[in-house]
Amino acid sequence: MSPFRVPGRGRIDPDRPVAFTFDGKRVEGYAGDTVASALLAQGRHLMGRSFKYHRPRGPVTAGSEEPNALIGTRRGPGRFEPNTRATMQEIWPGLAAESQNRFPDLRFDIGAVNDAAHKVLSAGFYYKTFMWPRGFWDKVYEPVIRAAAGLGKAPSERDPDRYAARYLHTDVLVVGGGPAGLAAARVAAEAGQRVTLVDEHAEIGGTLLSEPQARIDGQAAWDWLAAERDALAGLGVRIMTRTTAIGYYHQNMVGLCERLTDHLETLPEDMPRERLWRVRAARVILAQGALEKPLVFHGNDRPGVMLAGSAQTYLNRFGVRVGDRAAVVTSHDSAYHAAFDLHDAGSAISAIVDVRTAPEADLLAEAERRGIAVLAGHSVTGTAGRLRIASVEVAATGGTGPARKIACDALLISGGWTPSLHLFSHTKGSLAWDAERQTFLPDRITEACHIAGAGRGFWGIGAALRDGAAMGAAAVAALGGEAGARDFEVAADRAGSGESRTELPRGRAAGKSRAFVDFQNDVTAKDLRLAVKEGMRSIEHVKRYTTNGMATDQGKMSNINGLNITAEALGRAAPEVGLTTFRPPYTPTTFGAFAGYHRGDHFEVTRKTPIDGWAEENGAVFEPVGQWRRARYFPQGDEDMDAAVSRECRATRASLGIFDASTLGKIEIVGPDAAEFMNRMYTNPWTKLAPGRARYGLLLGDDGFIRDDGVIGRLADDRFHVTTTTGGAARVLNMMEDYLQTEWPDLKVWLTSTTEQWAVIAVNGPNARKLIAPFVEGADLTPEALPHMSVVACRFDGLPCRLFRLSFTGELGFEINVPARHGRAVWEKLMAAGADYDITPYGTETMHVLRAEKGFIIVGQDTDGTVTPYDAGMGWAVGKNKADFVGMRALMRPDLIAAERKHLVGLLTEDGTTKLEEGAQIVLDPDQPRPMTMLGHVTSSYRSDAMGRPIALAVVMGGRDRMGEIVHIPMEGGSVSATITAPSFYDPENERLKL
Amino acid sequence: MTKFSAFSLLKNAVTGNRGWTEQWPDAEPKKEYDVVIVGAGGHGLGAAYYLAREHGITNVAVIEKGWLGGGNTGRNTTIIRSNYLYDESAKLYDHALDLWEGLSQELNYNVMFSRRGVLMLAHNVHDVQSFQRHVHSNRLNGVDNTWLSPREAKAFCPILNIDESARYPVLGAALQRRAGTARHDAVAWGYARGATARGVDIVQNCPVTAIRRGPDGAVEGVETGRGFIRAKKVAVSAAGHTSVVMESAGVRLPLESYPLQALVSEPVKPCMPCVVMSNAVHAYMSQSDKGELVIGSGTDQYTSYSQRGGLPLIEHTLAAICEIFPTVTRMRMLRKWAGIVDVTPDRSAILGKTPVPGLYVNCGWGTGGFKATPGAAHVLAWTVARDEPHPINAPFTLERFTTGRLIDEAAAAAVAH
Amino acid sequence: MLLIHCPYCGETLPELEFAYAGEAHVVRPDPSTASDEQWRDFLFIRSNAKGPHAERWRHIHGCGRFFNAVRDTVSDRFLATYPAGTPRPDLSLSEDER
């Protein structure tokens, strides 16, 4: 055992040594140690470098509020992470820990030159320089600054770990497993409530773990704790350790992050690394205790300077003396006890420097009994020691007598305690300044929560236990139950009092003092005063100007001291200066925990059609469309997309193509008022559409712009089969429901999404009818009985079917709707039967080409949310005699009937070979200077096999009045000219549909 | 006003930093001003600066209910770009970008405008078509914007995932090299310092409770927490709270205020050289000079003034970030916060005169207000000074919602700002 | 995450089941008589209230119904939810009086 380990002390397991590495060197600790406690047990305090000045630093705390001892940890490939608190990382055999923000190594760091230049690098210095030469900022200065900034290195490999998420509903959620939380949980559980108790540490107990001397109801603290833990378990309390309550959200939802594997030697298979819990609690009890405040004085940041309470924790919980010869400087009674414990464990205490003039007599007596010198009314004026504190310089605050130097290898500091109210702040609960306790306490409560123990300013184990029980009872009462108060008898309790201080009295000029307030960000009291001198009056401004409180401890160590020093500099009371907002998360939380299951294929659902598997097996190249993946083309051999699409187009026009149209949105509209509803939703008239016929429908928003389109079949007087665009299905149904439920609730209509009920197979080409005829029962397929734009319910290969005759290609076409689960079987039968006709499966790209050849628009591609039916050349689809339809009124607005609107037209490049780029802009004069006057843009552009040349659709200002005009499309390599044509290229007379 | 320079820093280093003076004084409101600007964000402070600097109007007060720069100016993810689709937007944002490039020197305050490039990812064919339309339109408008292949995009931002099997594969990206980020607080502070040096009053912690109109309907001044302040002209630039202030003058606006959340990671050494935006999944990321990954999301679904925002959106945003940048899952969120953004139906701003004589409005910037700061402030000052819009903000009227002449960047490309 | 009471299902459920649908009680004018200004007001002008705000939600992953709610936009707290087509409740009255 190392000389700093105290045998028989602490909760580590001396029979289980654990070896890990720090900066490549082997370190041995014990099961139960953190990286920090194990290194301290080796007599080592230096663990990190600060952000700005690269000053050597050691741990100042023993918990998650640690600003200094940040390390990188590694566990094989992909499992590296920066900025981990050495004070929280439990050791396991093989853990590789490394220090950060240093080069070449922790003991000798070149970055420390910044420290020498600290007078230039004062608060906000970067706002005042690096402005010239103009343009140097992002090329020269910024890269240098960026390289110097940052702490650890970012992970550079994919993370092999998984993250999980769960919901939990509980009656009472208790945050914090210290005395207050334990008592609250016990009371609530005994009253029959479902209770969940969470604590961020490896075990519950909180302060009790650091104060084994206390006796509760006659039992030693740790015995009481063990019994209490068993009792809670017996009552069914869910106890979650290594679990941090990270945020308090609306209506009593608390987010928890449970760390499951970072402390384990071997990773259990199937165990996520972390689990995010979204807990909805009827009542929340916040029992998060208090954080000890550092004292602010010149040289308060050297390795070896540590909060007194933390030193006590290292001793009592980990069995580690943080030094052989410790000095203490304090404004609070609690540090005396740390000194006494350390003394009793074998360390020398070189002095207790108390900035107060009259410490409690019994503390003085205790000190005297141990032979510890107490210097009351003294202040620290400086410290010495480069990589470890070596001495502390003290002087009487009255200014009498010379400063004296006291040798030490650790300096315990305490500026009193601040209630931990971060989660409470998340709720927007307000805080009020408590003048007596010199701290902010909870005031107005906005959520169903209680604050218990030190969070309400109750110091000491007994007070915390009693308040915890009272708040537990209050929570029970709020839930309609009954629970009484409970008393506890606590001996050897160490509740004390203290004074709140700003920067301690100095032995030097204010300008020469380097008294750190935010350790990590290297913000000194002087920086805060400079900010005030420069006109920053709000604590928010001071924070942002100096970066005080913006380090990875989120101000846990620095906010209150920063506030007090700022208030002093402003000559105002602290509460008038205000407090910065605590924001979630309570401690930094991995992105992975928030992402949870939503990674990789699970990031977002991928919808696949019943025929998707066939497409995959047959080599389809897919594209994402909305949530769907769709086959884009089916390359054969080494075909590229152009070649495949050209072949697919040719085959379809020559004989037969088959296309999976299952992604089309489908809505069943049923009811006596179905036709009236259709009249009001769509621009087209529907009353006279006979059952068995279909019509192209155009849907606008009430702003008059095109939202969606699709072919709609009338199956019966009271039944329509509506199709929508693939991406628009949900939106359209929502819009229909909105109008139906809230504008026209009198209409008797029911809407049902049937998108996933039907598989839709489109067959197109001159041989389409011949292909399907053998499969169809109960329908006459002759052009007379089933003309273009009609629908019939029949059986297809014995299956119920809705057979549409329609065409999005300009060829004879049918869309076969069969129950989704039979989609693939029907597809395969059609493929087999189609062999005689050279049947060719095609994808979305060919579909796009074929429809563009016919000038059919794709909503979202040829329209963009600013296009009216008239712009798109579809005035014919607008019912002229309707009293109302969605968008009708807006179409009359001045700008929607203006002459200079953009019209959908065709474009044919003059050279007959250049394919225009989609999105390319159209101008009249390609030689004009920039910015150019643009008339419109190319919306769709393809090589057309049928036309033997490229074709394009475009929207062009006043386009319909420019037929035959030549326009120009200026590209990087020169301008392309094109003729404006009607937006239909192939078979404009629709002869091919008449087959 | 102390001039800022490397020399002044060195001089002060020697003299114990005693030479620095107040960057801006905190004023008590006078009884009357020529112009009162409601809202001391970057836009309001900038407008005051340009009123004084370019129009010689110095009897100006900027009235702020909280602390200057404490609203959206200090809560955004600082992305600056100008590669907008419509001519109107491109001109406005490019005007801003021109001003950004000289702003540090103009203000003698380093706003750290960093032209590190903004990469906008296309994840499907529709995105590609839309972004290429932007690239072409921008080129002819003289606005910098280039199309990159997935490989080129990865070369520009090495931590980008361009795996074709990704749920949202990268099919390409639009890159504006001139675009980037700036230090948000410095913009507010620099304008405040420049404006007050020219005689402008900044009144903080003074809520404007109403706008008072005279019998002729024209503006008379503002009622505030510290009493009535008379003003010939009032310009409201109060972001999420604009509706509330304008309502008191009887002007109802097509605005809704939504929470917009943002977050930062713990700081790490440089790992990301540029800004990346993915509109399809609503996630944006860059790395601050301090080393924090700065991440923005889309707005929450419901209107709110709570500055709180919900957990589901953060979960979604970080899931998206982990998809686009798979190496960041073990990075940690340090803090998250929310601003209140005022959104118009066409996602473009309203900047100009109102039906009330002497009352001007600058609002509706949605998620894109920061990047416009110098440009918006500059043309707002012009509009107030001359009682007529600058040609650049002339299209951004309130009337467009009546006529239907929208500047619909959202509909055109489903692009968030 | 908000908790929302669906007046149709009679249950209080998490926000994830619901979709926000904008301000409530915005009346769609008769298109045959509405002026451009009235149509603008219907389409675009919103109260954007800071404080109690009448708004619409749809229980999209539940019963599918649209309903109205009064929510305080400062605290995000729901003050009431009520069926579509019913008037905004007077929240100055106690629940029995409404």
What's the layout of helices and strands?
The complex is a heterotrimer of chains A (995), B (417) and C (98).
Chain A: E1 13-22, E2 25-31, H1 35-41, E3 48-49, E4 56-57, E5 70-74, E6 80-85, E7 96-98, H2 113-116, H3 137-148, E8 163-175, H4 179-190, E9 195-198, H5 207-210, E10 215-216, E11 219-220, H6 221-234, E12 238-240, E13 243-249, E14 253-259, E15 274-286, E16 290-292, E17 305-307, H7 308-318, E18 325-330, H8 334-344, E19 348-354, H9 361-370, E20 374-376, E21 378-384, E22 391-396, E23 404-407, E24 410-414, E25 417-419, H10 422-426, E26 431-434, E27 439-442, E28 449-451, H11 461-478, E29 490-491, E30 516-518, E31 523-524, H12 525-533, H13 539-546, H14 559-570, H15 574-577, E32 589-590, H16 591-595, H17 612-617, E33 621-625, E34 628-633, H18 641-654, E35 657-660, E36 665-670, H19 674-681, E37 694-700, E38 706-716, E39 719-724, H20 729-743, E40 750-753, E41 758-764, H21 768-772, E42 776-777, E43 790-796, E44 799-805, E45 813-819, H22 823-833, E46 840-842, H23 844-854, E47 902-909, E48 921-922, E49 936-944, E50 949-957, E51 966-971, E52 974-981
Helix pairs in contact in A: 4-6, 4-11, 7-8, 8-9, 12-13, 12-14, 18-23
Chain B: H1 6-14, E1 32-38, H2 42-55, E2 60-63, E3 79-80, H3 87-107, E4 118-122, H4 125-140, E5 146-148, H5 150-156, E6 172-176, E7 180-181, H6 184-197, E8 201-203, E9 208-213, E10 219-224, E11 227-236, H7 242-247, E12 256-265, E13 275-278, E14 283-287, E15 293-299, H8 311-324, E16 332-343, E17 350-353, E18 359-363, H9 369-386, H10 400-403, H11 409-413
Parallel strand pairs in B: 1-2, 1-11, 2-8, 4-13, 11-18
Antiparallel strand pairs in B: 3-7, 4-6, 5-6, 9-10, 10-11, 12-15, 12-16, 13-14, 14-15, 17-18
Helix pairs in contact in B: 2-6, 2-9, 3-9
Chain C: E1 3-6, E2 11-14, E3 19-23, H1 36-43, E4 52-58, E5 66-72, E6 78-83
Antiparallel strand pairs in C: 1-2, 3-4, 4-5, 5-6
